Fold this protein.
Amino acid sequence: MKIMIIGSPGSGKSTFSRKLGDALNLPVYHLDLYFWQPGWVQTPVDEWTVFNEDLVMHDKWIIDGYYGKTLDIRMQAADVIILFDLSPWITTYRVIKRRIQYHGKSRPDLNEGCPESLDWELVKYSWNFRKNRIPGIIERLQKSSENTMIIIIKTSKEAEVILRNWTS
């Protein structure tokens, strides 16, 4: 099974991915871990595209992360696409909370050498994700194969129910 999980920063993608991966015994790939090199250096675009093309060739996976420029590569390969479409109040709160929780440390889904940080650009990106990104994602989802299962999660409670249903 190939499961793609996308959504705003702070939507709960990584935590959900880890729990689902453990329950279904699927390898989980957090894209932030591969995209951000130590010191918050971005992977070059060509290299990133090849990485995504190679990653989706695996027989089974859960891939967590948005990265719009390579989104179609993952969408075309996925059996299931889960979109987290939570309120910007929740996601922005979580981005700030995460900054406090991991102060001076790298999160488990990030490379060492990428200590948790918070800047105005990330806060704005998280706050505006629903308005600026979700419509385009929905448009892309509508073009997905009819064999692709699409799940849109609007609340944390829905995420818990889906995890429970898939893991019981």
